[in-house]
Structure prediction request, 1198 residues.
Amino acid sequence: MESDETELPVSPQQRNQVPETGPFVLRSLLEDVPLSADGDRGSIEITCVEFLDQNLYVGTSASESLHFVQIPPDPDDPLGKPSYILASRLLPAYHEPPPNTAKPGVQQILLLARVNKACILCNWTVTFYSLPELSPVFGTTQIRPCSWIGGIDLNTDLAGYKQDGNGAPVTVLVSLNKKMRVIRIGEDARPVRTIDFTGSTTSVRRESFACVADTRSYALLDVERLLKIPLFPISSLDDTQSGSIGGRVEDISGSGSGGISRSTSSARAGHGTASGDDRGHSRSTSLGTFMTGGSRRHSQHGRPGDLSGRETPEGLFREASPAPAASPLAQPSRDPSPGQNKALPPPPPEASAPAGPAPVYLKPHIASPTPQEFLLVTGTGPSDPGVGMFVNLEGDVTRPTIEFDVYPDGLVVDGRGVGVDPIPATIDDDEEGFVLASMAQESDDEIRYGLEIQRWDQNPGEAGTEKFWLEQPLVGTRANDESSSRIGLRSLIDTGDVYFAEVAENLRLKRFRPFATRSMEASILSLSGGDSRTATSLERVSGERELFETEESLPKGWENHRNEEEEQFAQRLGHVRSRVVAWSGSNIWWAVRNPLALRLDATLNILMGSGVENLQTYQSLDKRKVVELINSLRGREAKTETEFLSLGYIRQRAGLMTFMSILSGDAKEHLEVEYHVAEEALLEGGLDPRVALSIVPILRNEIVEGRTGIWIHGGVKDLADKYITGIMPETSDSTKDNTPSDEVLQFLRRLLAAWRKKKGFGSIANEQEVFRSVDAALLLVLLQMDKSIPPGPARANSIRAELYDLVDHGVDCFERAVSLLESHRRLYVLSRLYQSRKMAGEVLRTWRRIVEGDTDEGGEFRRGEQKVREYLTKIRNSALVQEYGVWLATRNPKLGVQVFAEDQSQVKFEPNQVVQILREGAPGAVKEYLEYLVFNKNHAEYINELIAYYLDIVTTKLEESEEARGILAQTYESYRALRPPKPTYRQFITDNTVDEEWWHSRLRLLQLLGGSQGFASQYDVAAILERIAPYTKELVPEVIILDGRQSRHEEALKLLTHGLGDYDTAINYCLLGGSSIYHPISGTMTRGSLPTRAQQAELFRCLFSEFLQIEDISNRVEQTSNLLERFGGWFEIGYVLSLIPDTWSVELVSGFLVSALSRIVRERRETMVAKALSGAENLKVRASLIGEVEKAGPSIES
Prediction:
């Protein structure tokens, strides 16, 4: 994009192939202009060009003006260009210069569109014509000697006749030999005022302010107030000029004399009126008044043969009106005789040869880039650099200077400038301001003619201030001759249209067929021996293509119709308007703004390197430059539809090229910024992500084209097609791993994830197919990246967590996602995908596969059975709950029954229904469910059934296992051998549990039989006794409990004392009346359920008798003494003394005796106190009675 000022010289044959990366390009306007009527062009050159309303006017050095009319191209030919036919070849009238004086030919063609007039300056003579056919007007009116004509107000629309059509006169400036004239041209040419400024050579005007130049310096004029501000010399080596900017204001109101002359047959003689004052807008001053001086000189020096020989009046101007007073243009009469010699106007100062040492004369250049500024060029020599200076309407410098490598031959500005408010005349101009300078540069002894282009609206050092060099294109066989000609340059008053077919071709949408060059069947066959997952993918793609083909067909010829529509739309984008022309030799070109798409496309082609599409081409891509180009587009807002599409196209192409380069080389060699910039370009450019997927081997088969296919910019399509057909292998090597590197996978992950965020955007075409492809590709990328992660749950912000997030939020490619997850054996992720679609049945089916041993590569499904249980409580499908609840109960009865027993479950089952379901589907879980009902829900109706389950388990074990019976017998012996204090037998067997089902079932059986849940009255004692009758020796605690339920307390206490030796439980038995052999949990027994004290005393007497029969004497004495001491209150002293053996020492029962006697004494004293209290109460009552009687007094009864 940047011009290289030190670039190597390019041969003429190569210049035409140089990529056009500059802001302007040259496009042919008219080739091989017929400069000579006889075809012998000789040394004839084009001197000026003008264009208005499809009419082209060309001036030549042969003093001819050629008029061409534009013929529009064939509407049916999209690539057709307009042609031009020669309408007329005009020989403008001019005054013959002195002998041996060179004739410059047609010097200017000034078109005044508003009044439909043309002014042609030919060999220092101005003549007037009508538009567009160039018919002479104003009779024989001429202006001579004239060095230039112009100075039209640039703040007006120069081609404004198209809108106005009011024919308002146009004011122009004319440079005479010693004066400048202000002339108003309408239906005729009328003088306005004279400006005292000698030797002016060019002028540019804004309203009343004109910037003019003579051969030495520039000046600023106020043509209304007739004031001048001297500026600076054209050559900085000219010491005769002050060089001051914004100098002293001078008055330039001079008296008019000579300059515009007219000859009439009836003009009056004499020149007395020539001294009138021409200032102001006085209409009383005739045109002849300030033409007299010129006429006088002509009469003094003229001679026969002065005329050019063309059909012009003898006196050069001939008025149709014979009366001078009838027209303000009348002039004093002069002798019309051809023998009357007239002095020729002196040649322009540039042509005069000074007598002394030749001073440095440089051609002045004036342009006006804005309504408030003029651009002036100064320098030191024709081959030295030039400097452009900006001054405002007051003569002050406004901007930093710009530099030209060589002093220009011609200069134009284009564009209104960034930050400059538009005016009606520039409202349609481009915003960026450029200055184009024609010059000749010398390089390696070769002169190269071209245009130097740079911005004028940016300060030096800012982005975009670089210079560009543009040379003329080679045309035909005469290219070598043409390349050596100087280039003329001009800004026209009207704009022309240039059509760029390349823009339309690159920006138009074309159908991209990622699989068009490859056979799907061949691909499947080539991969069948390799990765089966890829083969499945290809089969899926093929199936989808067939599916789309079988759907309702699109209208016949729809694709051709779409192509026609896209072509018509794109043709609008290829049109660019320009008002700048350049010419050289016999060729004329439009200097037109290089469309953004072509300009940046050419830059990308340069960065690509070799023109041959191969792997090395993409590897050699200068990615740093591509990154810089993409960054230069960041934040740039499009101002037109074409620019909007061009920015998107360039971003797409640059991003895709960078991605191709990354894929073609070692991904680790690329910088992270390159990945991010490519990603940003593809996203901001809006490239269909399926195009990027098409160049990644493992992802291209995830593309869903859809019925209408993929439509992308033609330039991007060509790039992708070339890569797919030329770089990617035709067949996949089963031994080669086509998996991209981690860096590429990361890039694809970010790109595809960003695209997923665009779901729902209405601006995305074929949204369904796009996001099906994106989701499938992103899933595959994440699966590839997740392979390197160890099995286990996902960590925060990890790839696995992102994979979960993808499937949890749902994917558009559901069927494909299922296939991918199955092929990669990621069953847990698959189950999450099913959850996102609320497919509970598939979720449970997938979890069952994992629990039952199917391979799950991720290893995330920990505590699978527990998760199944939790999930079953959340769903509302009773059939699924029943099915998988039974399955879980079969595998894990404890968890399985929780599914049916959970209070928070969404599906409720009746207990009877659950029992029936479990009996049929999971018999092993029935016991667990019954335990839940009995122990947790207190359903007493299921006690007998649960006891029966326990008895079945225990008795079956005892029947089948001698070892089990021995274990029980051993526990009894071990417990009896323990010395007090010792735990209860229940605590003993719990602490010394055997980890077998029958042992735990027996503990549960004892818990139920013991009645700690208050269900003692709910089970059938007789039936249980019948079941355990064969095992009474092994099931001693069970027999004790059942004896207590039958009120066989003596037998129960005997077994507790002598069978088990559980003395604490025996005492507890007496206190609780045999309702439980275990200490009840606090608060579980009511006071009403306890036996009376008399009943307790009776049980204690039985226990006392059993203690006295303990075989071990020491144990007998200890337990009996302890019983009497702790519970002596339940015994009568006489009963105890009668049973205690006489051999026992009183000391053994001293505790009991002391407590008993103390109790007797206490009772006696309590009786005495009660008796005394009763006596006192009796006295109190008697005293109260006596008082009442006395109070009532005596009464007489009759």
About this structure: The chain has a mean pLDDT of 80. Residues 24-191 form one domain.
